[in-house]
Amino acid sequence: MVFLITAAVANAQTQPPVPPANPHPGMERPRPDALREITTITGTISKMTVNDDFIYDGFDIASNGESVSVKFPPHLGSQISALAKQGSQISVKGFADVTPTGEKAFRMSSVTANGKTIEDTPPAVLQTPPQEVSVTKSGTITDLQKNKQGDTVVGLFVDNTIVKMPPHIYQQLGQTLTKGTKISFTGFQKPANSGEVAEKKFNIIHARTISVNGKEYSL
Q1: How far apart are CA 189 and CA 44, in angstroms?
Q2: pTM of the predicted model, to two decimals?
């Protein structure tokens, strides 16, 4: 009897585990990204568009009676703005996409206008990358910056500075962070990256601490 039990245990230890016939939810292998068909659209640029830092990252075109939002990497801003402006005829090669905020867009892989083409290439690697500058400032909130949907505060205007902070921080301090409130803050200034073009010149500060009503908070 002892021999049989010992043999059974040894045999169980040497046998590889048998995978379940039907994996439980969450055990399936992740599906690869779906293929996205590359197409070409043509039309007239109706306006340039910017991101939350007021850096150009796209444009709207009128194509076949519809308005299409085209997105491009911000580091191509200077090239694209020099190639085509509002009212220009343009051809865009790319694919349909959805932005992180749920906005439908056409992601550019190349654009052609006035006989010239710009490809979506990565930014040049600088030998000396731009350095973040530590900042300590104070001032009065002149306005609140909301996202494009207008339902979430993503920054505070303090004169010519935008103090960036995570949305959940404003949700916690929203009662105190209103127009006319005096604040002080520390953080790092966003460096000017090569190729980017700003619609409006703002000092972008990613806040690390903020002080209001005599209390200081870590972000």
Answers
A1: 36
A2: 0.75
